[in-house]
């Protein structure tokens, strides 16, 4: 809840942001981070904050399809843009294939880093459907996980990539 | 009567376990991958205020003036607290050993950078932080004391003046004929080591929402608590209310590894809530606060070790001198981690004499706290190094010298010289597996060739114990008086046969809810999805501790099985009554109560439970209508410690053998890990995928400890590592993907034969990596003895090895 008390900070900015396909119009204090806006004002708590200084990657979201650190952006910088958070890519009972792969390969323990990883992998697989291990490591080098030791995350990404490719091939076959 | 708890899988009432022992999917995961779990910062209560904490910018000073009027006058600020409030209304924080506590906000004097000095509750965190800037504090600097060795000297500046010394404890413990062992040794090796501060750093920091009820004088604290029951006691003590007025609710949390802390933050938020008339107050520690002022620093140690060895490589005596720098106060239980090595002091070896010369010292740094492994990881790092030093000098292979000294597999249960008893093990078998799987001989040949080319290639091969199922009695030497750690669970079956288990802890990452569901599903013959695990708060749950000390998997299994056995006893009585049989003729098997020897005479569990809950007319007269039972498990056979700390303490002794291959770049001194092999024996694996996760996670933290992680303070006590740019956690690029083998030596003492493994590889990895580094450096005649083995440290060593370069 970033609305300050009346009188202390009069200069609220009106913004219009599309989050997970829904348009939100809001007035925000210009210093409000995008992470606080998404989590607090919009109530989307799946974007986690692990460091607030851009190193851990827990807060990773997609802005116009590209990963961004929600802790390093201000809400006003998202004005006019389209954002996807973890809540926008799947839900319980209907997990996204990337999420399902993390479940199946045990790519998480406490799960605090996981939304950030899932969003980062989402970007990777959108551009490289068949990444090499090296490409996976390179892409995930900026996301920290304190629990897993990463091996199961690597396996999760491989599995997600394979399943997404297979689903795409099956879809193409159906069309043909 | 205590229930009979099965010690093997065959003791479960199922013809073939479908879940226990299998790598089942975790029931925790769908919500976690969806970001829909209520971590504490996702909680917002009506009227909630936000706390920000002003922290000391200096290591040691008197507070001569503090003026909070500017903050109080700000619109949106509802309460401001200082150390004077804390001094007036609270007791000092509890410490181990007792009697060294300070207040949750510094009263009169600050003792470390990051110590809370004042706190504000305001309508937003942004405003609360603004308000901190309007608080004026004047400090009169005192000489800081940052080095533990200096802090011990007479005349050193005092952290707690009233104590007259910075030395919290100084005592030498001798077990066995140490003098004799060293006198009759063929060789004695001595080395000094420096293990620098590092710590837990779970990806989620600590957070709390505290709410004081001004009408009935009760307090509710919701937060990311690892051990809610103990937090309730700690907070009640500080706030001087009786414990039953404090309710602590543990929310799912993003890891802990011992380093979540929370006492100070909880007390501050609670006091602010009281001052603000009972509005809930949220405090979320930010990462910089965590790094500088949180519960994330552990093990700041100066070691000197000596090993007595016979010419044939037999290890006969071990002396360890430890000066452990606890920082500003012993409030973080850092002392416990100096005591815990007693559980496994002599490692996997039959060393018959040992000495521990232990000094605990205060300095102007953050109080140290628990971290995964709780003390043995640095101890093992020292001891395994000493074994390698002996091996190198005697020309014995590191694997061979260890094998010659292993406790033989037929000697268990085995009492080590410091008093603990190892339950079972086969250390040589684990070593053999690693040697085989890694093609160790070939690796040695490759190393020879690499050395001939001037490359710095090293192999580290070590074997360690992971003491599991912690017990308080292991910490007697630092003043902990208890024996036994209760863990309870309540199991109930509804009229549809669905099962609920209530426990006293929340999600933390280890997958314990899954383990509980596996056990119950197999026990009552249902699907795992028919089982639900529910966390109860500190007042509602049966006696509990929660995760910690590689204990919960075993303890929870014991509690669940004990409760299930009690439920079964009730079901058996009712079923026998309904089938007009004697209870002794009725048994539970595969989800049915059946009459032994009579084909077809059986009733499903659900049916019996439904009768109990809906047909009192059909029940035997003395059976209550409750298919529910509670059992509180504690480790059997624990003994109180004697004055030398000898006790049967940790119930299980898991064993791991690690081999790591490193290459050091001679120009940059960067260490590259290019091979990693593990054989791990933690008894019966209730969920092998959970176990693998614990081990791999432990390897990652071990790599951080060995190569990257260090809290750095300058000579003035200023904290130099306040972001993740300075404090380096291992990334996906740093952690090797180890090749792993499993051995299973069941514990004869535990439910289902499982052993504790939650702390896992951090016991072993730092030692293995340092051994490998020193193996690589051996031809140069230098030795790394300080953690982490950073490029800068190794580069300095390399320069010293090559004068003139
Ligand atoms: S919270 Fe944004 S990168 Fe860590
Ligand atoms: S799963 Fe806990 S930080 Fe990654």
Structure description:
- The complex is a heterodimer of chains A (176) and B (805).
- Chain A has 176 residues and is of the alpha+beta class.
- Chain A folds into 2 domains: 13-88, Ubiquitin-like (UB roll) (Roll); 97-175, [2Fe-2S]-binding domain (DNA polymerase, domain 1, Orthogonal Bundle).
- Chain A has helices at 34-41, 97-104, 114-127, 133-140, 151-175; strands spanning 13-19, 22-28, 60-63, 66-69, 82-84.
- In chain A, strands 2-1-5-3-4 form a 5-stranded mixed sheet, covered by helices on one side.
- In chain A, strand 1 (13-19) and strand 2 form a beta hairpin.
- The radius of gyration of chain A is 17 Å and the shape is globular.
- The mean pLDDT of chain A is 93.
- Chain B has 20 helices and 28 strands.
- In chain B, strand 22 (586-589) and strand 23 (592-595) form a beta hairpin.
- In chain B, helix 7 (228-239) packs across helix 8 (263-275), helix 15 packs parallel to helix 16 and helix 18 packs across helix 19.
- The mean pLDDT of chain B is 97.
- The structure holds FE2/S2 (inorganic) cluster (2 copies).
The CATH first-level class of the largest domain in chain B comes to Alpha Beta
Q: What is the total number of structural domains of chain B?
A: 3
Low-confidence stretches of chain B: none
Largest sheet: number of strands, sense, barrel closure of chain A: 5 strands, mixed
CATH level 3 topology of the largest domain in chain A = DNA polymerase, domain 1
Tally of distinct domains of chain A: 2
The total of helices of chain A stands at 5
Our estimate of the beta-strand percent of chain B is 15-25%
Structure classification of chain A: alpha+beta
CA-CA gap between termini of chain B:
75 Å
Helical content band of chain A: 25-40%
Number of helices, where a helix is a run of at least 4 consecutive DSSP H or I residues of chain B: 20
- What overall geometry of chain B do the principal axes of the alpha carbons give? globular
Q: Give the name of the CATH architecture of the largest domain in chain A.
A: Orthogonal Bundle
- How does the overall form of chain A come out from the CA principal axes? globular
Mean pLDDT of chain B: 97
Strand content of chain A: 5-15%
- Oligomeric assembly: heterodimer
Number-wise, the strands of chain B total 28
Largest interface: A-B, 65 and 62 residues
């Amino acid at each position: 809840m970033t609305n300050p008390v009346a009188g202390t900070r009069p200069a609220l900015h009106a913004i219009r942001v599309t989050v997970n396909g829904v348009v939100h119009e809001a007035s925000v204090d210009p210093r409000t981070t995008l992470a606080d806006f998404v989590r607090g004002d919009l109530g989307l708590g799946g974007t986690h904050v692990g460091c607030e200084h851009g190193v851990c990657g827990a807060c990773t979201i997609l802005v116009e399809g590209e990963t961004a650190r929600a802790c390093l952006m201000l809400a006003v910088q998202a004005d006019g843009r389209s954002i996807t958070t973890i809540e926008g890519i799947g839900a319980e009972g209907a997990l996204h294939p990337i999420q399902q792969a993390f479940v199946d390969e045990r790519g998480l323990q406490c799960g605090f880093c996981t939304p950030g990883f899932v969003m980062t992998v989402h970007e990777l697989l959108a551009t490289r459907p068949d990444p090499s291990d090296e490409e996976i490591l390179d892409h995930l080098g900026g996301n920290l996980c304190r629990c897993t030791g990463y091996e199961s995350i690597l396996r999760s990404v491989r599995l997600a990539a394979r399943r997404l490719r297979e689903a795409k091939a099956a879809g193409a076959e159906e069309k043909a | 009567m205590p229930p009979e708890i099965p010690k093997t899988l065959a003791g479960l009432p199922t013809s073939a376990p479908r879940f226990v022992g299998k790598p089942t999917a975790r029931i925790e995961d769908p919500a976690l991958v969806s970001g829909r779990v209520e971590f504490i910062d996702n909680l917002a209560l009506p009227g909630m205020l936000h706390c920000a904490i002003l922290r000391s910018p200096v290591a040691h000073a008197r507070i001569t003036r503090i003026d909070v009027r500017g903050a109080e006058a700000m619109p949106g600020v509802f309460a401001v607290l200082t150390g004077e409030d804390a001094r007036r209304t609270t007791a000092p924080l509890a410490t181990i050993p007792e009697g060294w506590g300070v207040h949750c906000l510094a009263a009169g004097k600050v003792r470390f950078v990051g110590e809370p000095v004042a706190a504000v509750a305001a309508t937003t965190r942004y405003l609360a932080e603004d308000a901190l800037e309007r608080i004026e504090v004047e400090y009169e600097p005192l000489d800081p004391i940052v080095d533990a060795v200096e802090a011990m000297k007479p005349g050193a500046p005092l952290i707690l003046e009233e104590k007259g010394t910075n030395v919290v404890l100084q005592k030498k413990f001798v077990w066995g004929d140490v003098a004799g062992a060293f006198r009759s040794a063929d060789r004695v090796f001595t080395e000094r080591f420096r293990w620098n501060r590092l710590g837990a750093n779970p990806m989620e920091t600590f957070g709390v929402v505290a709410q004081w009820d001004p009408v009935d004088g009760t307090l509710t604290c919701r937060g990311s608590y690892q051990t809610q029951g103990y937090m309730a006691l700690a907070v009640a003590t500080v706030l001087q209310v009786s414990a039953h007025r404090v309710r602590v609710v543990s929310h799912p949390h993003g890891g802990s590894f011992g380093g979540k802390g929370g006492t100070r933050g909880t007390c501050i938020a609670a006091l602010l809530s009281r001052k603000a008339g009972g509005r809930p107050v949220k405090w979320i520690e930010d990462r910089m606060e965590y790094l500088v002022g949180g519960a994330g620093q552990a093990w700041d140690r100066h070691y000197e070790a000596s090993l007595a060895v016979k010419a044939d490589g037999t290890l006969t005596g071990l002396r360890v001198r430890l000066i452990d720098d606890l920082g500003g106060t012993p409030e973080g239980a850092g002392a416990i981690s100096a005591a815990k090595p007693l559980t496994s002091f002599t490692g996997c070896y039959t060393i018959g004499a040992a000495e521990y010369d232990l000094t605990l010292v205060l300095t102007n740094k953050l109080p140290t706290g628990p971290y995964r492994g709780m003390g043995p990881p640095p101890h093992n790092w020292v001891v395994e190094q000493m074994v390698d030093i002996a091996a190198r000098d005697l020309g014995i292979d590191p694997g061979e010298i260890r094998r010659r000294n292993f406790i033989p597999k037929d000697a268990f249960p085995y009492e080590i010289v410091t008093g603990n008893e190892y339950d079972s093990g086969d250390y040589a078998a684990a070593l053999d597996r690693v040697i085989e799987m890694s093609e160790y001989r070939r690796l040695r040949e490759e190393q020879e060739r690499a050395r001939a080319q001037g490359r710095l290639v090293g192999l580290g091969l070590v074997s360690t114990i992971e003491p599991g199922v912690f017990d308080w009695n292991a910490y007697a030497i630092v003043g902990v008086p208890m024996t036994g750690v209760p863990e309870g669970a309540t199991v109930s079956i509804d009229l549809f046969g669905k099962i609920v288990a209530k426990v006293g802890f929340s999600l933390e990452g280890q997958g314990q809810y899954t383990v509980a569901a596996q056990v119950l599903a197999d026990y009552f013959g249902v699907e795992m999805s028919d089982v639900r695990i529910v966390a109860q708060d500190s007042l509602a749950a049966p006696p509990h501790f929660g995760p910690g000390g590689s204990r919960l998997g075993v303890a929870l299994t014991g509690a669940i099985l004990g409760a299930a056995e009690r439920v079964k006893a009730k079901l058996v009585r009712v079923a026998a009554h309904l089938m007009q049989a004697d209870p002794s003729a009725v048994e539970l098997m595969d989800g049915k109560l059946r009459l032994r020897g009579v084909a077809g005479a059986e009733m499903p569990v659900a049916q019996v439970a439904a009768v109990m809950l809906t047909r009192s007319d059909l029940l035997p007269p003395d059976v209550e209508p409750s298919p529910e039972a509670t059992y509180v498990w504690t480790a059997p056979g624990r003994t109180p410690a004697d004055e030398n700390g000898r006790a049967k303490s940790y119930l299980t002794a898991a064993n791991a053998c690690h081999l790591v291959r490193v290459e050091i770049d001679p120009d940059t001194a960067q260490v590259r890990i290019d091979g990693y092999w593990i054989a791990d024996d933690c008894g019966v694996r209730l969920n092998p995928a959970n176990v693998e996760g614990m081990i791999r996670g432990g390897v990652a933290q071990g790599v951080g400890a060995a190569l990257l992680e260090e809290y750095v303070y300058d000579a003035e006590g200023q904290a130099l590592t306040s972001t993740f740019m300075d404090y380096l956690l291992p990334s996906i690029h740093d952690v090797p993907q180890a090749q792993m083998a499993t051995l299973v030596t069941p514990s004869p003492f535990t439910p289902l034969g499982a052993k504790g493994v939650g702390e896992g590889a951090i016991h072993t990895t730092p030692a293995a990596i340092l051994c490998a580094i020193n193996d690589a450096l051996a031809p140069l005649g230098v030795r790394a003895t300080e953690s982490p083995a950073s490029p800068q440290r190794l580069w300095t060593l390399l320069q010293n090895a090559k004068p003139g370069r």
